[in-house]
């Protein structure tokens, strides 16, 4: 029986026990003086003993058990000559799948601490919105679309928004006729609700409350609203804003490059979508998108101004007069300026007729329904 000297870490004490290690065929016996001074023998199954990839002292280290592991650090240089031939038939296998953090030990902790400091600093310096836009970059379009579908289901059923299917069909037909190109196919849902509201869901869904639709007097307002919401989707504003509301998860997913957990958390927070309010920058960006999109499709971009005159800020129900809302007044002024500068494409009379006839049908539906 071969005996080797080793330092034994029993997994409970930080100090090593000086131990004598007996190498049996299937078992490694470790005899050492325990805390009470008595000789004690622990047994490791050779089959479950692993050769550690890393040891703080650079010595040969065997590892046993689940966390906290037990270790044997071999003091003698004979390890190669004694232990290796002994188990030539069944050498302690290398540790297979281990977490990166276990593998790298202190290095990993250092890297994570540095990353956290960096993240904390950038959040402090640039704010949560910068963090959210970084995280959004990690989400590929296909996943954004799948997330959007889940969010849509969650918000429409969760908020119990009854769908106006007749006007949903007509408004979708209208938007298809306008044909603004976008990264995602846009699906519009008209819901029956007394609030004046509309919101965009990541990945291509737009929800329009019929009360807002009822305020509109021209089809250009509808085109402008849908273009504006499409702008929010195109620029991923709602995804960013939603991510910002679950910032701590966003930070973790940025750290670990894993967005799956974040997705589940976002769906849980879908109800925020109905009341997200965007920064003035984001609203301006979506308004600019709408002015350009309408002009390019040959629709009077003045529709954006007309739309803003009936649209409260997303999420906020229209309780006060719009003229008292400084944000909206500023947006109207900015939109007017943009309309002056943009070049409007000339479209065929046929296209104009089609849009007008669809708008007429949407308006007829309104009359057919009872009001709240
Ligand atoms: Zn908006």
From TrEMBL:
Residues 171-338 form the Peptidase M48 domain. Binds 1 zinc ion per subunit. Its cofactor is Zn(2+). The keyword Transcription does not apply. Keywords: Hydrolase, Membrane, Metal-binding, Metalloprotease, Protease, Transmembrane, Transmembrane helix, Zinc. The chain crosses the membrane at residues 106-124. It comes from the Bacteria. InterPro entries: Mito/Outer_Membr_Metalloprot (IPR051156), Peptidase_M48 (IPR001915). The keyword Protease applies. Belongs to the peptidase M48 family. This is Peptidase M48 domain-containing protein.
């Amino acid at each position: 029986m071969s005996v080797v000297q080793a330092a034994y870490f029993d997994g409970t004490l930080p100090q090593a026990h000086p131990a004598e290690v007996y190498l049996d065929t299937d078992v490694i016996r470790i005899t050492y003086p325990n805390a009470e001074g008595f000789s004690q023998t622990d047994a490791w199954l050779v089959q479950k003993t692993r050769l550690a990839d890393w040891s703080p002292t650079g010595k040969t280290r065997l590892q046993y058990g689940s966390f906290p592991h037990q270790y044997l650090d071999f003091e003698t240089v004979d390890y190669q000559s004694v232990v290796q031939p002994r188990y030539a038939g069944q050498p302690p296998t290398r540790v297979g799948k281990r977490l990166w953090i276990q593998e790298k030990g202190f290095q990993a902790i250092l890297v994570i601490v540095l990353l956290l400091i960096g993240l904390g600093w950038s959040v402090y310096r640039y704010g949560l919105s910068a963090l959210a836009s970084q995280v959004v970059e990690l989400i590929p379009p296909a996943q954004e679309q799948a997330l959007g579908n889940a969010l849509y289901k969650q918000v429409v059923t969760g908020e119990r928004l009854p769908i106006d299917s007749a006007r949903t069909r007509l408004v979708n037909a209208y938007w298809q006729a306008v044909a603004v190109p976008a990264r995602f196919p846009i699906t519009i849902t008209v819901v029956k609700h007394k609030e004046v509201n509309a919101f965009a869901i990541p990945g291509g869904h737009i929800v329009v409350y019929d009360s807002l639709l009822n305020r509109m007097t021209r089809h250009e307002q509808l085109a402008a609203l849908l273009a504006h919401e499409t702008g929010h989707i195109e620029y991923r504003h709602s995804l960013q804003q939603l991510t910002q509301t679950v910032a701590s998860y966003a930070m973790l997913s940025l750290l670990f490059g894993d967005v799956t957990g974040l997705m589940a958390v976002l769906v849980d927070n879908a109800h925020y979508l109905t009341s997200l309010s965007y920064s003035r920058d984001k609203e301006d960006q979506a308004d600019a998108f709408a002015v350009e999109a309408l002009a390019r499709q040959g629709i009077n971009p003045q529709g954006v101004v007309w739309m803003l005159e009936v649209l409260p800020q997303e999420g906020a129900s229209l309780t006060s007069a719009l003229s008292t809302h400084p944000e909206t007044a500023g947006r109207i002024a900015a939109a007017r300026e943009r309309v002056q500068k943009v070049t409007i494409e000339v479209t065929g009379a046929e296209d104009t007729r089609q849009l007008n006839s669809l708008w007429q049908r949407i308006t007829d539906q309104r009359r057919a329904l009872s009001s709240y």
